[in-house]
Amino acid sequence: MFTVTYAQLNAWLTAFLWPFVRILALVATAPVFGNTVVQIPTKIGLAGFMAMIVAPTLGPMPPVTVFSAAGMGILVNQFLIGAALGFTMQVVFGAVELAGGLISLGMGLGFATLFDPQSNASTDVLSTLLNMIATLVFLAIDGHLQVISALVMTFQSVPVDANLLNAPGWRTLAEWGTTLFAAALLLALPVVVALLIANLCLGILNRAAPQIGIFQVGFPLTMLVGLVLIQLMLPNMIPFFARLFDNGIDEMGRVALALRPAP
């Protein structure tokens, strides 16, 4: 007769549950995976499938029961690690959307908004467009697979443990958030500068010939200049996005190392 002891059942459960929670937290928060278009059962199934593959390679887990205080602490730790890694990649897409907002503001398209189901808020059309382009580039360069690979590697750098996570990890994540503004400014800078020059020219023209009616000419002109520059920038956006995604993957490893509990 086949019998299973409580210790064996607890070992099997912990070997699957704790990696599953870390993976599920990343799937729920990372770009593409965490999109609201992806149904919740799909996310859970994907996380469970990855956990079944990863769990046998992790070695023995801490000898604590799942529903004990230490077990709940480990569960919370795994959730926080996965959420921090997913948010690290979300910062990259946040930079892209912020760049679209800066360009829209300069073009006078700040009022043209669409409902974004991901953030449950209104987003300007250029931010949505740049976000779609960035998502296509992310999938084309296998960014989703790189995110999964980086997550699996964190099980070696940050093993499953009941110790508290290090505070420097959260500081590293906060400092990475400054990339949102720097990258957004770099991406939007050519268009913003060109629109600034166009507006200066329109202002000078308005002073020289007020009868032209600069307010009727200015809006379509700035929109035309912005659209032309965006079209010219498209070939250079792909390597720029790829570099941002590579930096995001590297930052995931740095955040994980900084979160590693002190021995």
What features would you highlight for this structure?
about 260 residues, mainly alpha, two-stranded antiparallel sheet
The computed structural class is mainly alpha
Radius of gyration equals: 24 Å
Please list the strands of the largest sheet in the order they lie side by side: 1-2
Helix and strand run: HHHEEHHHHH
Largest β sheet strand count, sense and barrel closure:
2 strands, antiparallel
Mean pLDDT, to the nearest integer, reads: 81
Tell me the overall shape: elongated
Q: What share of the residues does DSSP label as strand, in percent?
A: under 5%
Number of strands: 2
GO biological process, one term: bacterial-type flagellum assembly
InterPro entries: FliR (IPR006303), T3SS_IM_R (IPR002010)
Main location: membrane
Subcellular location: Cell membrane; Bacterial flagellum basal body
Task: Give a description of the structure.
By secondary structure, this protein is mainly α. The chain has one domain. Helices cover 75% and strands 3% of the residues. It has eight helices and two strands, in the order H-H-H-E-E-H-H-H-H-H. A two-stranded antiparallel sheet has the order 1-2.
Quick structural overview:
With 263 residues, this protein is mostly helical.
Write the layout of secondary structure elements.
Elements: H1 6-29, H2 40-54, H3 69-107, E1 113-116, E2 121-124, H4 125-140, H5 143-157, H6 167-176, H7 178-208, H8 214-259
Antiparallel strand pairs: 1-2
Helix pairs in contact: 1-2, 1-3, 3-4, 3-7, 3-8, 4-8, 5-8, 6-8, 7-8
